[in-house]
Structures are given as structure tokens and as C-alpha cells.
Specification:
Layout: H1 13-23, E1 30-34, E2 47-48, E3 58-59, E4 63-66, E5 77-84, E6 98-101, E7 113-116, E8 120-123, E9 128-131, E10 141-142, E11 153-155, H2 163-171, E12 176-180, E13 184-190, E14 194-195, E15 210-211, H3 214-225, E16 228-235, H4 239-251, E17 255-259, H5 270-277, E18 278-283, E19 287-288, E20 294-299, E21 305-311, H6 315-333, E22 344-348, E23 359-366, E24 371-374, H7 384-388, E25 391-395, E26 406-411, H8 412-415
Parallel strand pairs: 5-6, 13-16, 13-17, 14-15, 17-21, 19-23, 22-24
Antiparallel strand pairs: 1-12, 2-11, 3-10, 4-6, 4-7, 5-9, 8-9, 18-20, 20-21, 22-26, 23-24, 23-25, 25-26
Bound molecules: adenosine monophosphate and magnesium ion.
Length: about 425
């Protein structure tokens, strides 16, 4: 046995997340947006309905509105005294009569059921109708308020809007919604090896140079979350440039997000720069990929602080730490109430015989048999794994997987929304 140099233990992911969320005090700024533009935004107020939806009892079929008691047996005939199409309103229905009615039209007062036209025969050119089926009271009637009742909280403060919620808000007459303002996020990539696509063609890339891929997915991920992103591009690997970039980014932003430069090498300048300009509150998490993640604050010359989150440079590490740590943090800044990751239990259709000391997030994909396959190369530099995957397997530290085992699977779809 050799004595390994003692290092502080890595922080468990759940502890790190708890600490981060404790720091993510909602920003509290709100704005009114057009309901059309509210997709993905977080509601800043409860949305209460000022009316019933539907507003009136109405027909869910094309047919005839009747008093069910008037059609007690098949073969009954009634006079047709009115015609009511969607958008119209009829007259009270006299006993012993029927109203021709169409889907969505309000039921006339007195009627309590609709007989669909397939269960009728029109007589005398539509002046009378014979019923071939007997309606139960309430048949084919959509009751007023069956979707939404007046005074009901339809959407809750802290909810993140999605298309169905936008439709619901519109359905109660709201053309605008009060939502959390977009968090202002400054993004930069570090690394002297980085080249922007388009700047140099692939065949002319210098030895050691690579294209900057993190910048593209990180910007897109932030935008999907509803952030107002200032992309500061690539910052070189030296202390002065790193300090200058952090200092100016802190001024007009709520969060500074960086990629690369947070490991332990001499070319990793982010960590000491953040310590110099503010504080580094958290560094290194017991997760794979993503160990070098860092969190802290950068002081503003004008007072106050910006949050700082440093993601590892390896693309898959950057991607996974964004989804598991940055995403809930930013959602909380916006006042979102649902921060957890939706997970499900699925069957592993592969073996993972070697345990790891860290909790692992394996890039995996559901197969047609309802089980999970993993991408063969789980290296944190292989971004193809993240593109191939439709989810992450949350695999506990020290455990192995045998074919057929139940594992915890986090679908990417919701994490990417
Ligand atoms: P670092 O965390 O800076 O030590 O970087 C770790 C690895 O990720 C290195 O191989 C870097 O070249 C690579 N890397 C860093 N930043 C990026 C980036 N923006 N796009 C693609 N690869 C990167
Ligand atoms: Mg680097």
C-alpha cells in the first residue's frame, strides 16, 4: 500500500445541488409578455379565470337538442322549432319540441340532452325529426365550467409555460401574461486551443487546435431556458484576460457561465481568478462526468455580486453539468417551482461490470424492447454520446450493472426544454 496524497473528499451531487439552490434566490424581476411569446417562460403570478370554460352548456355533437323526458322511447317524433349553429344562441326550447343543433352551439334553455344526428331521421324536409335512440339526461352535453370554473387558479405562479398552458391562458381571455424577466447570463469559453468554426477551415487547423463546440450547445441550452445571453466568446488561458472578462461580465449580469479552465492544471485560470474577485464556494463534485464543476460569486465594482458557474471543458462534462446543476439553478432564479429531474425505472440491456468511485451519468438510449442501451464510449470528450443518447442513466457510485437490472433513467427531452 502506498500513501496517496490526501485530498478533501469530493462533494456528493445532491449536497452540491442543495447548496446551489440555497444560493439561487429568485431575481424577482417580472415583465408582461404576449401570450403568444410565453412558451418556456415562468409565471410570476397565479392565473385566475374570470369566467367558466366553456361559458355555457353546449352540444358536443351535431344533432338535436331535446328534453330527454320528451324522448322516452325510440320512434318518438318531435317538431324542429329552431336551428342553432356554433356562435349563435337559441331561444328557450318549448316542451315537446326539438332544436337542430351543431357542435359547440349553446344548448337552448330547457334542453338537457342532445341526440346525435346518426340516431335520428329528418322528416318533412327537416320540419320534424324521428328519434331512433333514447337519450339519457346530459347526453352529448358539455357542461358550463366543466373545463375551468370561474375563480379557479388555472396556472400557478412558478409554473413554466408550455403550449397547452398557453392555450389555457388564451381560453380564459388573457392576451398577456406576467412572467419572470429573463436572467442575464454572460457566457464565455476558455482555452487557447479553441478555434471558432468558420474562422479556419478544417484542413488548415493548426496542430493542437480544436473547434469550440461547447459555446454552441451552452448558448442554445441557456436560450432554451429563457435566458438573455451575452456571449463573450473565447477568453485566452491567462490570468489577466480571465480577470478582465470576469470583472466586466459581473457588472450587468446575474450569472457568469464559463467552460474550461476549472481543473487543477497550470493553465486553469478560472478558479484563482474567481477567488481573487469574489469567492469560490463550491468546487469538485463526486460525479462522472463533471467533477471539476465550480460555483462562486464575482463582486461588482458597483456593489453586489454576480453568480459564477464554471463548467468543465470536456464537452460531455459541460453538457451534463449544465443539465443537472445549471438548469435547476437558473430555473430557481426565475422563480420556477419545479426543479427536479423527472426519472423513471427501466431495464438495462447491457452489462457494466466495473464500478466507479463517483456517481455516473451514462449516456443511454431506450430501445424498441423497452430497455436501455448505453453508448459504447463513455469518455467525457466524446460528444457523439450526448447526441446519440435520449437520456442519462443515474448510476450510483460503487455499483455495477448486470443485464436485466432496473436502473434510474432521466430522459433528456424534458431537461433540454
Ligand atoms: P479544460 O477543462 O479547460 O482543462 O478542458 C478539458 C478538455 O476539454 C480539453 O481537452 C479541452 O481542449 C476541451 N475543451 C475545452 N473547452 C472546449 C470547448 N469550448 N469546446 C470543445 N472542447 C473544449
Ligand atoms: Mg482549458
Amino acid at each position: 500500500m502506498t500513501d496517496a496524497p490526501r485530498r478533501p473528499p469530493l462533494m456528493p451531487l445532491d449536497d452540491a445541488l442543495q447548496r446551489l439552490l440555497a444560493q439561487a434566490v429568485p431575481l424577482g424581476m417580472t415583465e408582461q409578455v404576449d401570450t403568444f411569446d410565453a412558451d418556456g417562460r415562468v409565471l410570476a403570478q397565479d392565473v385566475v379565470s374570470a369566467l367558466h370554460v366553456p361559458p355555457h352548456d353546449n352540444s358536443s355533437m351535431d344533432g338535436y337538442a331535446v328534453r330527454a323526458a320528451d324522448v322516452a322511447q325510440a320512434g318518438v317524433e318531435l317538431p324542429v322549432t329552431q336551428r342553432i349553429a356554433a356562435g349563435q344562441s337559441g331561444q328557450p326550447l318549448a316542451p315537446g319540441s326539438a332544436a337542430r343543433i351543431f357542435t359547440g352551439a349553446p344548448l337552448p334553455a330547457g334542453a338537457d340532452a342532445v341526440v346525435m344526428q346518426e340516431d335520428t331521421e329528418a322528416l318533412e324536409g327537416g320540419a320534424r325529426v324521428r328519434f331512433t335512440a333514447v337519450p339519457a339526461p346530459g347526453q352529448w352535453v358539455r357542461a358550463a365550467g366543466e373545463d375551468v370554473t370561474r375563480g379557479a387558479v388555472v396556472l400557478q405562479k412558478g409554473e413554466r409555460l408550455a403550449p397547452a398552458g398557453m392555450g389555457l391562458a388564451a381560453g380564459i381571455g388573457l392576451a398577456q401574461l406576467c412572467v419572470a424577466a429573463r436572467p442575464r447570463v454572460a457566457l464565455f469559453s476558455t482555452g487557447d486551443e479553441l478555434v471558432m468554426p468558420g474562422a479556419v477551415p478544417p484542413e488548415q487547423m493548426a496542430p493542437g487546435a480544436i473547434y469550440n463546440s461547447n459555446r454552441f450547445f451552452l448558448r442554445a441550452l441557456l436560450q432554451r431556458l429563457g435566458c438573455d445571453v451575452t456571449d463573450l466568446g473565447i477568453v485566452p488561458d491567462n490570468r489577466a484576460a480571465t480577470l478582465a472578462a470576469l470583472q466586466s461580465a459581473a457588472e450587468a449580469h446575474d450569472l457568469i457561465l464559463t467552460s474550461g479552465g476549472v481543473s487543477v492544471g497550470e493553465e486553469d485560470h478560472i478558479k484563482p481568478a474567481v477567488e481573487q474577485l469574489g469567492s469560490l464556494d463550491l468546487w469538485q463534485i463526486a460525479m462522472k462526468p463533471g467533477k471539476p464543476f465550480a460555483y462562486g460569486h464575482v463582486n461588482r465594482a458597483t456593489g453586489g455580486q454576480a453568480h459564477f458557474m464554471g463548467l468543465p471543458g470536456n464537452p460531455v462534462s459541460s453538457f451534463v453539468t449544465f443539465l443537472l446543476l445549471v438548469r435547476p439553478f437558473v430555473l430557481k432564479l426565475m422563480g420556477a417551482t419545479r426543479l427536479d429531474v423527472p426519472a423513471m425505472t427501466l431495464r438495462a440491456d447491457f452489462d457494466l461490470p466495473r464500478p466507479d468511485k463517483r456517481r455516473e451519468f451514462l449516456r443511454a438510449r431506450r430501445n424498441a424492447q423497452g430497455g436501455l442501451d448505453v453508448f459504447a464510449n463513455q469518455s467525457s470528450g466524446v460528444l457523439t454520446s450526448a447526441h446519440w443518447a435520449d437520456g442519462l442513466i443515474d448510476h450510483p457510485a460503487g455499483a455495477t450493472i448486470a443485464r436485466g437490472d432496473a436502473v434510474r433513467f432521466i430522459p433528456l427531452a424534458e431537461l433540454l426544454s
